[in-house]
Amino acid sequence: MEPIVAIKLAELVSTVIYTFVGVALLFIIWKLIDWVTPFPVVKEIEQDNNIALAVLIGSVFVSVAIIIAAVILS
Fold first, then answer.
1. What are 38-56's pLDDT values in tens digits?
2. Rama region for 49: left / alpha / beta (φ>0; ψ in -120 to 50; rest)
3. CB-based contacts of 42: which residues, under 8 Å, 6+ apart?
4. Is residue 64 a contact partner of residue 72, using CB atoms and an 8 Å limit?
5. Do 64 and 30 contact (CB within 8 A), yes or no?
6. Where are the domains of the chain?
7. CA 7 vs CA 47, 51, 54, 60: distances in Å
């Protein structure tokens, strides 16, 4: 029970706020990628089974998430 008491309300609130900021930034990045590409990304991945594009988009999301986490922690 002691670790639960040690969590302060400010830390909990800041964690929730930073989570929503990170998710919002990832959503903005997704919309930017979708807007910049000359073809529909979702169609390429889902209907045409473009595995290379799926891996590329996944790696972009992982790298952006790492960058966002590093910025939030600094």
1. 989 889 899 999 999 999 9
2. left
3. 34
4. no
5. no
6. 2-73
7. 46, 43, 39, 33
Tokens of 30: 């997704």
Question: pLDDT tens for residues 27-38?
Answer: 998 899 889 999
Please report, as a single letter, which amino acid is at residue 30: W
Q: Is 40 helix (H, G, I), strand (E, B) or coil?
A: coil
Q: Each residue of 1-21: pLDDT tens digit?
A: 566 666 677 777 887 888 888
The SS3 of residue 27 is helix
Structural contact between residues 29 and 60, judged by C-beta atoms closer than 8 angstroms: yes
Tokens of 16: 């929730």
3-state secondary structure of 18: helix
